[in-house]
Amino acid sequence: MKQTNVKPADGKLGIMIVGNGAVATTFMTGVFMTRRGLAKPIGSMTQYDKIRVGRGADKQYLHYSDIVPLAKLDDIVFGTWDVYPQNAYQAAMYAEVLKEKDINPVKDELEKVVPMKAAFDRNYAKRLDGDNVKDCKTRWDMVEQIRQDIRDFKQNNGCSRIVVIWAASTEIYVPVDETLHGTLAALEAAMKADDREHIAPSMCYAYAALTEGAPFIMGAPNTTVDIPAMWELAEKTKMPIAGKDFKTGQTLVKSGFAPIIGTRCLGLSGWFSTNILGNRDGLVLDEPANFHTKEVSKLSTLETILKPEVQPDLYTDYYHKVRINYYPPRNDNKEGWDNIDIFGWMGYPMQIKINFLCRDSILAAPLLLDLTLLSDLAARAGRYGIQRFLSFFLKSPMHDYTKGEEAVNNLYQQYTMLKNAIREMGGYEADEEID
Amino acid sequence: MKQTNVKPADGKLGIMIVGNGAVATTFMTGVFMTRRGLAKPIGSMTQYDKIRVGRGADKQYLHYSDIVPLAKLDDIVFGTWDVYPQNAYQAAMYAEVLKEKDINPVKDELEKVVPMKAAFDRNYAKRLDGDNVKDCKTRWDMVEQIRQDIRDFKQNNGCSRIVVIWAASTEIYVPVDETLHGTLAALEAAMKADDREHIAPSMCYAYAALTEGAPFIMGAPNTTVDIPAMWELAEKTKMPIAGKDFKTGQTLVKSGFAPIIGTRCLGLSGWFSTNILGNRDGLVLDEPANFHTKEVSKLSTLETILKPEVQPDLYTDYYHKVRINYYPPRNDNKEGWDNIDIFGWMGYPMQIKINFLCRDSILAAPLLLDLTLLSDLAARAGRYGIQRFLSFFLKSPMHDYTKGEEAVNNLYQQYTMLKNAIREMGGYEADEEID
Amino acid sequence: MKQTNVKPADGKLGIMIVGNGAVATTFMTGVFMTRRGLAKPIGSMTQYDKIRVGRGADKQYLHYSDIVPLAKLDDIVFGTWDVYPQNAYQAAMYAEVLKEKDINPVKDELEKVVPMKAAFDRNYAKRLDGDNVKDCKTRWDMVEQIRQDIRDFKQNNGCSRIVVIWAASTEIYVPVDETLHGTLAALEAAMKADDREHIAPSMCYAYAALTEGAPFIMGAPNTTVDIPAMWELAEKTKMPIAGKDFKTGQTLVKSGFAPIIGTRCLGLSGWFSTNILGNRDGLVLDEPANFHTKEVSKLSTLETILKPEVQPDLYTDYYHKVRINYYPPRNDNKEGWDNIDIFGWMGYPMQIKINFLCRDSILAAPLLLDLTLLSDLAARAGRYGIQRFLSFFLKSPMHDYTKGEEAVNNLYQQYTMLKNAIREMGGYEADEEID
Amino acid sequence: MKQTNVKPADGKLGIMIVGNGAVATTFMTGVFMTRRGLAKPIGSMTQYDKIRVGRGADKQYLHYSDIVPLAKLDDIVFGTWDVYPQNAYQAAMYAEVLKEKDINPVKDELEKVVPMKAAFDRNYAKRLDGDNVKDCKTRWDMVEQIRQDIRDFKQNNGCSRIVVIWAASTEIYVPVDETLHGTLAALEAAMKADDREHIAPSMCYAYAALTEGAPFIMGAPNTTVDIPAMWELAEKTKMPIAGKDFKTGQTLVKSGFAPIIGTRCLGLSGWFSTNILGNRDGLVLDEPANFHTKEVSKLSTLETILKPEVQPDLYTDYYHKVRINYYPPRNDNKEGWDNIDIFGWMGYPMQIKINFLCRDSILAAPLLLDLTLLSDLAARAGRYGIQRFLSFFLKSPMHDYTKGEEAVNNLYQQYTMLKNAIREMGGYEADEEID
């Protein structure tokens, strides 16, 4: 490794997960099993990807950990919050994502992960009925309690650093309100005034994490990290913030497939996406208010990849529709069906249909590993505020729209951004452009 | 446009097409209709794509024709060879690719394209029974007759330049024979000796074109352009040569979809591709000897994108199978069904199924336009021999394996190569690396 | 033909269609073209099907018209009502279901079909904006005007008999109200009181038709024919009544596929059905109130085929969901995607996915022909009231639930009912049982 | 139960299975688990189906065992032959069809099923390499050894009756040879003359079974039971014979789906079926000579359901193609993809695509149970020779073509035949007709 300005990854890294469900337990089980050599962390960029550094005769293909100082899997300690009190072993068994034989060897480690009481408000997720919940007088009190949890966890586990990541359900849609969410001062005032309509519990987690000097990552489509107040806080605390919504099944395919169409200058007349899923995430999304949050997040993908202003003959007025359907027989095996209507030479139509029989938690787990390790890396590299280089992992990537920034959704442009950031943190030259 | 060293595209460009069937007539009809403002050449990079030139503050997004001197559609003249004597209007109607209303406005122009007699050998395509065929004593005689056709066409139509492109059927598989195909001298000797087993008619077209100072492009999977003798001839005549096999349906999807898997470090256990198609191309491929040629061409795609030597945990021993089935009810509407078996976190399996209801000729037509215009450009730019920058358009791209070169099949790496070549010919700096 | 008690089909049959859109014009064009020998009425049971009559040594396989006196295609005269004033030729061209070459030969006949002003209430179909609409003071006035239309049409065209069929859009859901819809007297009172909330325009058409001595058929999922008042009217006027909702794409498949599962004693854990369609029908169904009408109609299919009370191990608690999505790129090419989750030996799960790329109007047209001809036959045979034997053609078949009757949705049981009715009207013995 | 003439099912029933692989072990495990109340024999007609007996007021819906005397699951004893020596527990674990937790409870019973040495000839299945094989001097000797096995098994296990069923691999295609296979005398002569080309090992099993007074059922597409000599033997020994080829995935769907098309008088222009499968059965079928046997069996299905002679406008010249592909990633999860090209009103085309993610052994297991129990029943009922009523379970049902009989492939006609036979054996009146 070159000499870099990134601080070394000394000591233990505490990964505190909001949610102790299918995604979180699949992630933790995989890390425990990998540490014992019993499983492989397939799908993780930090563990597998090799990227080019240098050019021409000097070029090399290196793993991330050979370029920058990443935390080691052995140095990770896990903590969770959840509205259900079951420990991670019980939750993993209930989730039925992994086979028993892939959970049992690390049963003891999973059993030790007992979720802390969740900061929860049932108005934000009506379909959840757990009662392992904090008693909070106000939203500000909610923040204080979460901060105390973080401090306790850090001390009890001897962690040198903490990262907080949201892997819980989608909350109902909270539109960004310029008055209440526009500045840190306004946000804090609303929290103190206990404005429960505009302050989602997830905002309290984010606020608490950043204030305690921990990067925060939003894995659901909640607008938590879309508000300027939170960016201001990240700047103030010099902490990374990232989101939103893990890019798992259908959007992964969309952000990878749309570039095929765009690169070949084929036209698009419509894209219809439907999902069927049956886990707790699906149950929550069956509630229209929660689905709306997800839909807003999912719809933006195409618009920034296939742009009518650049290719009016090809991408004007295509019809884009996204549907999510709760369908219990699928359980965690989320299934996507995409119908893509393209047109070619002389406007003649063609169809592409993609049926993705994926597994939500299996696709999400490596994203949690990468997002937490890379956020921790960014913090040590002194990169704070919005982390655009993590767009690769996210369905609706953060960008400062108040400065006219656009989201980058094209998977390959996102990948270039990721590689460039690793190169820069490793002391190598980045490629200047992403297209 | 910057000052470039490319010669200007003055005068008429003769595009001579081997084959006057569905692909060729769809191509010609589209060009005629576009010239009259009655259709749009969707899918054509030379007509639609904009690429970045310059970097940072200097960067601009320009159409190809604003970077390099491309021939104009108005300057194109068409000629064809075919075993069937029907003119291009009749052939277009027979093909049933385009609707009558999209053919009739240019009926007069199409009727003027009457195919010259084909250089044909029925042993190479048993299922074709046309008799608009040259009477050739030897393969060398075949070459001579084609050369005469090219000279006549050029003179009669007042063309300043000619490009020859193969858009005819797949021939039976001719394995590369180092002795007979290894040097130009050996090739010429075999032609003179009338070695009909090792010299396919397509080789005579390629030989004739290059010798007459015309670039040659192989649109079928024939091994014509895979033989060192032909490269030697291209070097000697300072002409571009390109191939092979137009990248239309399933392989386009494959070369664009495999990078999604690779980029996200997901594993692959198998990829099963089946095609059903019902046009004359399908009929020819129903003959095992002809199918073999196609299969060899299609199988190589994945191996260079997902490499076991780079990611042994992910890409060792995946099972790749390609099937092509003649199924008349589909006619030109070639349909692909891909079954992709991937695995993620801890090795858990997932499936992706892609059903592409494409139209073979609609996807191929813009490739003919781009390949001929860009080959003509390359010739004027003094770029001769194998044109790797045209890999983007081809299923099994040419590469000099005798020098250890590997084919580039990843659609986005191919695209970078294409953009770099345009940039360079336009006097701009290329991006150095393709990954 | 045996001697039967059915009155002969003498004179002209007037088929009056509510709606002059894609379905109606495809139907009429096909009849006109068939009469000239230019097309074939594929999909029509009355024109194609042969059924067994007699048993053992006496059995014969005969076309319907060789068993019973059906009206001839040559004796049909068409009339329509529509909110848009375009004649049937214009409407057929606009619909883009049929190719021009299949419409033009009968252009003159189609042009003569100019829709009468529709009895319409925009509250029942917000997305429709035509203004070829009757000015009606009350619902009773609406009835009177439609009756006058029927009398005028019958006289002007010299028809001996009339059938009225609804091929217009789905109205918003009107729940059956026992008080208002329970008796004919109550219904008439509500019409006179101009109760626009409970009396849909479709009820006025049905009332008018029956009163004028014409069978009425409901082709949309409107509850028009589900109300006891209408049955009472049909009994009183001794006229057949049939409905509801043409069984075209997805439900046809469902009613034919579910029996495969049931017959083999396989279990069902879930059935997810999604549709995408882009014609005017889809536009109307994009309005939630109109969709609700459709959903109620579509959901009932499975429940009567796969019965938990008969096979509790196999059919208890399966999850059945139906989605309809407006998606303009499909136009009339309605597409269904069904995901069927079954289980077999020891409860092991399997999946079946059916993707139906159908054409709504092409599938509906022969149903209109069969339903009108067979309703006319039934009238002449003295069979009045609910026509259960027409269940075969309908998504949500009529049945007198007040007498504990159940709908029959199994396609093969419906077919047996159809065959039995034809046999009986033809003077043959029916098979007694449908399973 | 009514008084019937069927002998009671007293004593133990020995089910001797040729093959101890995925299908056989899934079958046996399920029976063992069901006997202990730990699993349910879903998909089995004899255990689940209820059929109507009587008509009108007298009709009742009864389980088969309430109509006829079926052997009980508790009375079954299993024996197997296989080229691999592993016991049924080991083979079940190797097959990976069932989860460990569904095998382990009956491990002890499975371990006791140790396969006898197989009567095998590697020329009939090149891809199999097991060596648990009998040493046979001639085919006649092979017969003798199998007969001895049957006698020994019967005696050792105290069975009152034996049924032999083939659940082993597909052999290479043996065309029926009128001279050698036409009479029993000729067959016996060929066996004694050790004509290994015309006498497949499966014929020796069938001969041995029938001669020992055991019904024989052919579950693979081998021509074993298609030869008149074998029918003659069945008549002579008064034993039932049934076959061939278990109707599991794609053909089940085909025989159930084609009737939908036929019943609605829709036209068919083509049906393309492809399969991917990865178990030992797939490996064997990857050998062209073995595949040919399967292909012949699968192609006949449609022809007898959709008949051009009855509906020339609808079913003349449709293109039917079947492909089977060995694809190891699927293992036992055989997957079918059917593309059905239909046409409707005025000849307009539509497509249906069916993707069946099935499990071969899960679908086959209940067929073994039903076929063995029903063959045993037939034997006790004195019904010998070809058992047409078992067509329901078979891909290519037996029929005496020398008498002009046709195979019945329509699933519902087959079901009627099955029900009629049960009714008759139970002393009830059969419905006379199957359509």
UniProtKB/TrEMBL annotation, chains A, B, C, D:
Lineage of origin: Bacteria, Pseudomonadati, Bacteroidota, Bacteroidia, Bacteroidales
Short name of any one Pfam family annotated for the protein: NAD_binding_5
Domain annotation Myo-inositol-1-phosphate synthase GAPDH-like: ranges: 249-361
Top-rank lineage group of the source organism: Bacteria
Family label: Belongs to the myo-inositol 1-phosphate synthase family.
One BP annotation, GO: phospholipid biosynthetic process
Species name: Marseilla massiliensis
InterPro entries: Myo-inos-1-P_Synthase, Myo-inos-1-P_Synthase_GAPDH, NAD(P)-bd_dom_sf
Protein name according to UniProt: Inositol-3-phosphate synthase
Gene Ontology MF terms: inositol-3-phosphate synthase activity
